[in-house]
Amino acid sequence: MSKKLEALRLTPMHDRRRKLTEEKKEEIKKRKDTSSRQLAKEYGVSRRLIVFIQHPERLERHKELYRERRKDGRYYDRERHTASIRSVRNYKRELLKKGTLSFPQKTVRCIICGREFIMGERVKLCSVECVRVSKIMTMKKYKEKKKLTK
Ligand SMILES: [Zn+2]
User: Fold this and answer.
1) Protein residues placing their CB within 5 Å of the ion ligand 1
2) At what angle do helices 47-54 and 36-43 cross, to 10 degrees?
3) 25 FRET partner, CA 20 to 30 A, in 37, 46, 98, 114?
């Protein structure tokens, strides 16, 4: 069970480390005339994350430096690591119980943006943003139909 649980991937939606959807990141990339401080406030994330989103080359540089620094083991804490693995495992069990995550995982294509994603609670839509777009489109179609029948 544990190995299977290990192999079970969390969808972006379930990933607790993820604070922003891909759509929000795209929005942030485009808003270069708003200050990073203001954007951080608006999106509820750190200013650093905003800067990394707008300047991917800085994120790359940061990752490189981090990889170097961690080589001496300064970030490794056995207890924290074990606790974290346990926490993720329990989180997955919780999601399985709720039925928002399941075996086996199928990848499907989002009908709005076309991105491939692991099927979670949403059947054909990859994110909250795409669900929103889909609702708007359904509303438009409905209104058009109404006009035609008048
Ligand atoms: Zn999508």
Assistant:
1) 110, 112-113, 126, 130
2) 110
3) 98
